[in-house]
């Protein structure tokens, strides 16, 4: 993702890439790296402390697409929004942004339906479920009231009400497929988004970066920047 974003940035008018760091050398941010207007971070959770310190030191805007952040790290991202322009998203696809809106609306209208979420990614993905699947779960159940069944095995008995099934598939080179199923009596509604290339996520991150630079300090979602 970092390489794809860099390639697109180099082609964009109004942007100049001043540094490229991998997760292994992100500590250079602590060593007086010159201030930049913007940081785009698709690295690893352990890099967040270095990125956050740089943003606080320089006031740079931050586009964060790093997934797998724990509760404390998400708290740090929210805190950065108090002093800088920040957007964090698990998925920078415009289609997924629309999918979340549709799923949220369906969940409100189909409140009595059973819900299952299935996500599929390439065999090198290290976290499960995906950040996008978690975002879709939040769209279905924003209050976090429902139990989540991460796959099922054995004699599990009848499906409880107020349970959301979450299933992660891994294989091949799949860029990302997410499906949310609503099962009612004698009817089903299904929403699916398929990504055939990671380029869409990089393009979305660059578009979000341009939109973010026009905003005031604050924490934004990708939907805030691209759909509102």
Description:
The structure is a single chain. This protein has 228 residues and is of the alpha/beta class. The chain folds into two domains: 115 residues, NAD(P)-binding Rossmann-like Domain (Rossmann fold); 102 residues, Dihydrodipicolinate Reductase, domain 2 (2-Layer Sandwich). Helices cover 33% and strands 23% of the residues. It is built from seven helices and nine strands, in the order H-E-H-E-H-E-H-E-H-E-E-E-E-H-E-H. A five-stranded mixed beta sheet has the order 5-6-4-7-8, with helices on one face. Strand 7 and strand 8 form a beta hairpin. Helix 1 packs across helix 6, helix 2 packs parallel to helix 3 and helix 4 runs parallel beside helix 5. Its EC number is 1.17.1.8. It is an enzyme of class 1 (oxidoreductase). It catalyses: (S)-2,3,4,5-tetrahydrodipicolinate + NAD(+) + H2O = (2S,4S)-4-hydroxy-2,3,4,5-tetrahydrodipicolinate + NADH + H(+); (S)-2,3,4,5-tetrahydrodipicolinate + NADP(+) + H2O = (2S,4S)-4-hydroxy-2,3,4,5-tetrahydrodipicolinate + NADPH + H(+). This is 4-hydroxy-tetrahydrodipicolinate reductase. Homotetramer.
């Amino acid at each position: 993702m970092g390489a794809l974003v860099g390639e697109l940035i180099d082609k964009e008018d109004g942007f100049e890439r001043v540094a490229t760091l991998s997760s292994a050398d992100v500590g250079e941010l602590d060593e007086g790296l010159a201030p930049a207007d913007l940081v785009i971070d698709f690295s690893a959770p352990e890099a967040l402390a270095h990125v956050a310190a740089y943003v606080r030191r320089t006031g740079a805007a931050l586009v964060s697409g790093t997934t797998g952040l724990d509760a404390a790290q998400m708290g740090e991202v929210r805190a950065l929004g108090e002093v800088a322009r920040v957007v964090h998203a698990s998925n920078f696809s415009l289609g997924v942004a629309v999918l979340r809106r549709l799923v949220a609306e369906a969940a409100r209208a189909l409140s009595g339906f059973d819900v299952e979420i299935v996500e599929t990614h390439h065999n090198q993905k290290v976290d499960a479920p995906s950040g996008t699947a978690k975002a879709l779960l939040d769209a279905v159940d924003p209050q976090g009231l429902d139990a989540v069944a991460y796959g099922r095995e054995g004699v599990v008995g009848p499906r409880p009400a107020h349970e959301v099934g979450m299933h992660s598939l891994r294989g091949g080179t799949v860029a990302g497929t997410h499906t949310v199923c609503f099962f009612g009596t004698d009817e089903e509604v299904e929403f699916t988004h398929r990504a055939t290339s990671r380029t869409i996520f990089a393009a979305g991150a660059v578009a979000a970066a341009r939109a973010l630079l026009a905003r005031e300090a604050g924490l934004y979602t990708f939907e805030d920047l691209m759909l509102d």
